[in-house]
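Please decode residue identities from the backbone states below.
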């Protein structure tokens, strides 16, 4: 397989995304039954073995997405590893706390890094279908989802059962109902008290609103473009807007008028999410060269150690760069 063929296999087009509709225990619970779950790079925390995964191999983090119509919820749950969201379409009301008592509405381009050990959920508000990309830290996704006890109770009778090992039994797909001692036990009141909570004011430092993006000092001198450092460690060489220890970080590039970032390489794993416009990516790796055009919503899994450049094709393009470290080093410009 040559490099061009490899890169083509590492590209996931937005228009070709395949959703899963029974990835989690709440997928048939009324009010959550119309949501789509996408595993773009890595299996994420999907509990169903039947979930379609576009690119299975990961290198330290997973990329997924959630899509749903207005009024449909993703139920209260928690993770042991990082969970970050980038809103792509529509408006999402994120709610959190043991009773979902706090909330905030995020719109297109808004980014949030949700603290671990915190129950969270989200629903689409307004009239439009909502879609947002997710970044999950770790190759094994931290052992899956920790569900609020009420979510497990409400899911009963809808054909989906969560086993104690985190896998999903789907009776509508032919699985048998697990025995009582095989089911995931409910969290006790004492265990629930161990989870954190944040007021809305306390949560806002973990949010980078699109309207408040602020450019940082460019990594590529002599190029007319804007670069944004959105989430990452406060100990990093970049002044990230959201300062959090996630083991991943998010940067972004705004290019226009055929601007081109020069060929460069990074030590960290990279995934590009082309948020808007058309961006041509040139990649050099192991003596070969390949090119691919990213259109709106496309995701590219960049080979580790590859050299790459980004070029605006027309209008304005905006591309997120997900890096496999919350303290990324500056790129080496070639």
């Amino acid at each position: 397989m040559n490099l061009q063929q490899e890169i083509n296999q590492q590209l996931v087009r937005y228009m070709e995304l395949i959703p899963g509709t029974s990835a989690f225990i709440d997928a048939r619970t009324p009010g959550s039954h119309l949501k789509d779950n996408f595993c773009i790079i890595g299996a994420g925390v999907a509990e169903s073995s039947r979930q379609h995964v576009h690119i299975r191999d990961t290198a330290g983090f997973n990329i997924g997405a959630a899509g749903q119509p207005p009024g449909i919820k993703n139920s209260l749950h928690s993770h042991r590893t990082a969970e970050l969201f980038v809103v792509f379409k529509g408006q999402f009301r994120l709610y959190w706390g043991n009773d979902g008592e706090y909330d905030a509405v995020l719109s297109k381009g808004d980014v949030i890094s949700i603290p671990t050990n915190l129950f969270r959920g989200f629903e689409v508000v307004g009239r439009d279908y909502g879609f947002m990309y997710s970044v999950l830290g770790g190759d094994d996704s931290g052992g899956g989802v920790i569900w609020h006890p009420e979510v497990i109770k409400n899911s009963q009778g809808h054909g989906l059962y969560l086993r104690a090992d985190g896998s999903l039994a789907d009776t509508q797909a032919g699985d048998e109902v697990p025995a009582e001692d095989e089911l995931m036990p409910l969290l006790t009141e004492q265990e629930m008290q161990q989870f954190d909570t944040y007021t809305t004011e306390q949560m806002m430092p973990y949010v980078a609103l699109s309207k408040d993006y602020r450019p940082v000092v460019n990594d590529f001198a002599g190029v007319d473009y804007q670069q944004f450092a959105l989430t990452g460690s406060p100990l990093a060489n970049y002044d990230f807007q959201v300062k959090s220890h996630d083991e991943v970080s998010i940067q972004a590039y705004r290019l226009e008028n055929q601007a081109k970032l020069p060929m460069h390489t990074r030590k960290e794993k990279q995934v590009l999410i082309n948020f808007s416009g058309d961006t041509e990516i040139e990649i050099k790796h192991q003596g070969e060269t390949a090119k691919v055009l990213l259109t709106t919503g496309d995701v590219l899994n960049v080979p580790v150690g590859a050299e790459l450049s980004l070029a605006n094709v027309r209008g304005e393009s905006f591309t997120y760069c997900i890096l496999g470290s919350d303290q990324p080093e500056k790129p080496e410009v070639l």
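Observation: The chain has two domains: 16-206, 213-333.
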